[in-house]
Amino acid sequence: MTSSVNTRAVLVSRPVGLPLPEHFRVEQVPRAEPGDGEVLVEVHYIDVQPAMRGWLAERPAYTPPIELGATMRAQGVGRVLVSRHAAWREGDYALGGNFGVQRFSVQRGEELTRVDPELAPLQQYVGALGSSGLTGYFGMLEVGQAKPGDVVVVSSAAGAVGSVAGQLGKILGCRVVGIAGGPEKCAYLVDELGLDAAIDYKAREPYRAIQELCPEGIDVYFDNVGGDLLDAAMLHLRPRARVVISGMISQYNNTAPSVGARFYGMLLVRHARMEGFLVRDYAAQFPTARKVLAQWLKEGRIKTREQILPGVESFPAALPMLFDGRSFGKLMICATAQ
Amino acid sequence: MTSSVNTRAVLVSRPVGLPLPEHFRVEQVPRAEPGDGEVLVEVHYIDVQPAMRGWLAERPAYTPPIELGATMRAQGVGRVLVSRHAAWREGDYALGGNFGVQRFSVQRGEELTRVDPELAPLQQYVGALGSSGLTGYFGMLEVGQAKPGDVVVVSSAAGAVGSVAGQLGKILGCRVVGIAGGPEKCAYLVDELGLDAAIDYKAREPYRAIQELCPEGIDVYFDNVGGDLLDAAMLHLRPRARVVISGMISQYNNTAPSVGARFYGMLLVRHARMEGFLVRDYAAQFPTARKVLAQWLKEGRIKTREQILPGVESFPAALPMLFDGRSFGKLMICATAQ
Question: Distance (Å, rounded) from C-alpha B164 to C-alpha B7?
Answer without folding.
Answer: 32
